[in-house]
Design a protein that fits this description.
16 strands; single chain
Length: 220
């Protein structure tokens, strides 16, 4: 369900990294029983040769469950918003992946189904690290590389971890990024550009996660 309701980073976008550098070495697992996405939802895989149908994204209770499959983003056009706003989602990793894999939120999404796709994304993974990147077309710009932070809940021996990631675009000077209620970074707005656009979800490959409390709150 979509409900509307510390480190300071002053980094410009870095040199774009090729897609091959972003991919992991183990192959995507084609998920059995995958099918159509929930009504109103769309998805796009990182790898142009992968199929979104090889991942499973389903409504479950008041949230969603994703079993991937290829790394992908998921969005609903109803989640388009304009600054100022905050956006937050809670994601529970339910199983151990072959190695730490990431999940989180994206924002300022534009042209998501076109070659010139554009979005920024905040991710966490089970080894206690977070990442902030920007994607433009096929290029990925690293804003904050994988960084250890005590705010990120690490996965236990069974691979289980629950993390809430938040984008706070309510301030004039910067966009703040929070994990489990703790600010882990702030990026000057001039580096990110307009934060207007679609807010959605990102789940990297071969993960099993449950998504709840996906909330976009326009500031009054």
């Amino acid at each position: 369900m979509i409900r509307r309701t510390v480190i300071t980073a002053s980094l410009a976008f870095a040199v774009a990294a090729p897609l091959t550098a972003q991919m992991t070495h183990d192959h995507d697992v084609k998920v059995e029983g995958a099918g159509a996405l929930p009504k109103g939802w769309m998805g796009r895989t990182d790898n142009a040769t992968a199929k979104i149908e090889d991942a499973k994204f389903v409504a479950m209770g008041s949230g969603f469950h994703v079993t991937s499959g290829p790394a992908a983003i998921y969005w609903n056009d109803k989640s388009a918003t304009k600054a100022p706003f905050t956006a937050s989602v809670t994601i529970r990793q339910t199983k151990n992946p072959a190695h730490p894999e990431a999940y989180g939120i994206f924002f300022q999404g534009r042209n998501l189904d076109k070659p010139d796709q554009n979005y920024a994304y905040l991710l966490v993974r089970g080894d206690g690290k977070f990442l902030l990147n920007h994607r433009a077309g096929a290029d990925v710009h690293k804003i904050i590389p994988w960084t250890d932070n005590a705010a990120v809940h690490k996965a236990d021996a069974n691979g289980v971890a629950t993390n809430t990631v938040t984008v706070d675009a309510t301030k004039a000077d910067s966009v703040r990024f929070l994990i489990n209620g703790t600010q882990v970074a702030a990026v000057p707005g001039a580096h990110l550009g307009s934060t207007d656009g679609i807010v959605g979800l990102r789940v990297n490959h071969n993960l099993d996660v449950h998504i709840s409390d996906f909330v976009i709150t326009p500031a009054k």
